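hi support,

uploading two proteins for the ticket. first:
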Amino acid sequence: MPLQPIEIQKTRFAQKLRGYDPVEVENFLALVAEDLTQRIAEVDRLTRENRSLAERVAAAEGRERQLQEALLRGKQVSDQIIETSQREAQLLIKEAEITADKLVTQAMERAQEVENRIAELRTRRKELQIKLRGTLELFAQILEADFEEERATASVHTIGRKKA
């Protein structure tokens, strides 16, 4: 189950001696929650945009189907007209083919644009994931360095007893 911003904001940690500053931890959690909220909103926006583009592609395919049906009807009409005017029928067919080719080309170009946009979004998502992983690894290294420094500088002081 994905982590939700509200879960990050509600997270609390037990306080221990020489622990982290609670204000800094809460500020960081708020920052992470805000960033997660923004990313969720971006994913939602991209999902809506993707849905809209898919609907546009479906509409274009519907128009293409209608054009193909219109082309078929045009051919049937041209077959009927052949007896009286073969030249006029050939002209109608040619115009319909040119129009259909243009619409098919436009639909294919639009579909290619949609595919390219999806590929860009996937690439961007991968880049963001890599960036986030790098950031998390950096924080882990910083944390480990802090722990090492703490272990290295920790010492025990004893107080000597006075003799009476």
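and the second one:
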Amino acid sequence: MTINRIISRLKKRYQPGKIHSNDPFRTLIATVLSQRTRDEVTDRASEKLFSKYGTAAVLAHADVSDIEELIREVGFYRVKAPRIKEIARIINNDFKGKVPADMDALLSLPGVGRKTANCVLVYGFGRDAIAVDTHVHRISNRLGLVSTKTPEETEIKLREVLPKKHWRHINELLVRFGQDICRPVAPKCDVCILADLCPGKNHS
């Protein structure tokens, strides 16, 4: 099966390690911060934020202006600062300080969509879920695994075609592959390890 060959080659190339962090709250907040922001910027902002506000209880009582200063590097930081404070407040008050390991409950949090919720389930709890970001959506379509218009549609279709044992790994593998080889513009088709399995090359 082509999809198994694709996953096998990607795992051999990128050798994914431990999936989940054992800190669902940090995973949740970092994923919210990562929206429209580069990974390295998200990492720096997350470190600054969590060095001062490490739990939902503490972050829920932080000054928004202080949060803004700590996360200033990320995109839309003025929008994200009150949002993550409110997320922390809800978790602290409604969920007894613990991030829920439930899709519907996660989606009830402000600013949390399916991609963020799935990232929390995968990276925060080690659950079988498919987190679809721009890399996963783009590459899944390029490889012909799905034919979809939106990340939400891609998640649904990948659930149908991707063996469940690969769900937790697909995000990390395709993100790294997308950053390394299968870029949005000028992908490196000439050195791609999946070139013989790809329906077309020289994508634009």
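thanks. also noticed: The radius of gyration is 18 Å.
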